[in-house]
Amino acid sequence: MTAVDPQQLRTFVTVTRLGSFSEAARELGYTQSAVSQQIAALEADLGTGLLNRRPVGPTEAGLRLLEHAAPLLVRLEAARADVARLAGAPRARLVLGATPLAVGATLGRALGEVRRAHPAAELVVRVLAQDALPAQVATGEVDLALIDGLAAPSDPLPLPDVGPLGTVAVDEQPVAVALPAGHPLAGRTGVALADLSAARWLDAPDLTPTAARLRAAAGVDGFRPATRYRGTDVHGLLALVATGHGLSLLPASVLAGAPGVASAPVSAPRLVHRTELVHGSLPEGPAALLARLLSGTS
Question: What is the rounded CA–CA span in Å between residue 288 and residue 298?
């Protein structure tokens, strides 16, 4: 068996994702015949069928290959981007990826200093979900990222391994349960997360910990979502909390002054809302300055 061709692997992943040879050819800029030839060559190399043809979908062997393919392709792109960053000229454009709750006044002030130091630089902030950002930093789609999430005090966020990235803690805040005003727990000095496992919860994976993350943190089953919220607008999420559609776990500072919303700090287990700066190699320029400002080393 020869070494697997990365391009064949990328084609296989694309066909599987789209469920169509013709759609994959359109996206990749190939002819349908070229896509079919690449898949056939990959199957011949591995000695097994990877895709069923009608309907198009992965075989058992194809599913196993997919488990390896995505991280392999990310690491290849990460290596290319890392070398390009070191070898290339400083960029006059700064692209920052950020999870919704990581965008705040601290970031705004730091970007202001970057703008004063590099007045010609174009500054771009992309608000994205946590799961997408580490790979985008590794592959150079964003220069660096601010990612927030739930963690034990002083513990790093559980981020996927997508390459040799650096992480720096930039903020830790207490977390609280968001409740409708008038809820029996409103005003409590502390609540145990496990005691709320049977309550109605909002499922907002782009903003708050998932049910699986809450179960792991509390060490109990439950936390079944009553309402699913897909989006990054925290004001919309809090409006649903205020009108009784479910509870949510958020940094305490987000809940201060929210209309119709009360809060109860989480006393057990010990948890914080943590924000980390995630970056690859940073040649001198706007991105390197922002990283220093956010990590307090400037």
Answer: 10
